[in-house]
Amino acid sequence: MQNHLVLTASVEREEVLRYTPAGLPVLEMWLRHHSKQNEAGFERDVTCEIQAVLIGKQAPLHAGKLAGNTVALTGFLSQRSLKNPRLVLHIEHVEFVKG
Amino acid sequence: MQNHLVLTASVEREEVLRYTPAGLPVLEMWLRHHSKQNEAGFERDVTCEIQAVLIGKQAPLHAGKLAGNTVALTGFLSQRSLKNPRLVLHIEHVEFVKG
Hints:
Number of domains of chain A: 1
CATH architecture of chain A: Beta Barrel
Shape of chain A: globular
Oligomer: homodimer
Distance between the termini of chain A: 35 Å
Mean pLDDT of chain A: 95
Largest sheet of chain A: 5 strands, mixed, barrel
Strand order of the largest sheet of chain A: 1-3-4-6-5
Strand content of chain A: over 45%
Number of helices of chain A: 1
Largest interface: A-B, 34 and 35 residues
CATH superfamily of chain A: Nucleic acid-binding proteins
């Protein structure tokens, strides 16, 4: 079952790096995406804000360095928790986008 | 700016086909995705529900035929409206998944 998102976005806000009880590093952030997309032969303005989380050894490497930057991300979508259906992007790969 | 989602999901609910004031056909639906994904070296259960919309000439072709089926979709994410930040998948391509 495929679940793969490729997104370029600006990091609007970055939380402080935290650790799970099992000691896994977790970096949460808020992303804002804006682009023009083609749909049914028309070009439309597309905007979305989405929460994202980077879990594991990449997290400390990026902590404190993402806010205010534009990044290219890949990852999968999951609901926040069993009781909270809000969608969160679980980041698998992150790269800075110049300019 | 990239914004591309590849998702396999079951169509939980499908709205009746409608038309915009400009005459564009619109098919709205609710999707449910469930899979196992790898994150930080662990396999985790991933679930998400997302609203999706198919706009344009594909819409009448699929109207009334998607509910209850598993489909493979590609498209982009947009917030529902200026005032409603809920994420909606704008479908660019849909295929039935057998079994």
